[in-house]
Design brief:
This is Glycosyl transferase family 1 domain-containing protein. It holds the Pfam family Glycos_transf_1. The chain is mainly alpha-helical. It has 5 helices and 2 strands. Helices cover 66% and strands 9% of the residues. The longest helix has 15 residues, at 59-73. The protein is globular.
């Protein structure tokens, strides 16, 4: 996960993310509905994504982003995941 994206998620921000289907980032963001996904290398899609972020109600994205950060990116979340991994070995 990119460091800037981690910060955006932690503060419950709305991220416009350029990522193509089939990538890990695309799957993660889509699964958790925590940002606006935009096809990479597509300027018009990026313009449309930014416009959507500014004009639509993005409350659900913000809440999902914050929840994901708390569960998976916080110190407690990381340690909990590490502990679960150790227990399955």
């Amino acid at each position: 996960m990119f460091s800037k994206l981690t910060t955006v998620l932690a503060v419950g921000g709305v991220a416009v993310i350029t990522s193509n289907p089939g990538s890990g980032m695309h799957a993660l963001v889509q699964e958790h509905q925590m940002g606006i996904l935009i096809e990479a290398e597509n300027q018009q899609a990026l313009n449309d994504g930014i416009a959507a972020a500014m004009s639509q109600d993005t409350t659900q994205f913000s809440q999902n982003a914050r929840r994901y950060a708390e569960q998976h990116l916080s110190l407690e979340g990381v340690m909990r995941g590490y502990e679960q991994l150790l227990l399955t070995c």
